[in-house]
Amino acid sequence: MTIAQIIFLVVAGATLGSAFMVVTSRNLIHAALWLVATLFGVAVQYALLNAGFLAVVQVVVYIGAIAILFIFAVMLTRKEIRDQGPQLNSSWWLSATLSVVTFGGLVGMLWGWKDMAHTVPDIPPGFDSISALGDALVSPDAFVLPFEVASILLLAALVGAVYVAFNRK
Amino acid sequence: MNFWTDPLKMAADWLTGLLTGWGMPEGVAVGLAAFLGIFVLIAILMVIDIFLVWLERKVVARFQDRIGPNRLGPFGLIQPFADIVKLLIKEDITPANADKVVYNLAPILSMMSVLILWAIVPLAPQILGIDLNVAALYIIATGAIGTLSIIMAGWSSNNKFALLGAFRQVAVMVSFEIPMVASLLIPTVLAGSMGMNKIIEAQNIWFVVLSPLGALIFMIAAIAELGRSPFDMGEAESELISGYNVEYSGMKFGMFYAGELLHAFTFGGFWGILFFGGYSFFGLEDVSPFLAIPILLTKAVIGYWIIMWVKYTMMRIRIDHMLAFNWKFLTPLSFVLLMVTALVHVLFKDTSPWLYGLSMLGSNLILGWVVIEFLRRFSRAEREKLEGHAKPAMEAAGH
Amino acid sequence: MHNEWLYVAFFFVVGLIIPVGAIGVALILGPKKPNPVKQETYECGLETVGDSWVQFKAQYYIFALVFLIFDVETVFLFPWAVKLGQLGLFAVVEGIIFITILVVGLVYTWRKGMLEWA
Question: Minimal Cα distance from A43: which residue of B?
Answer without folding.
Answer: B141
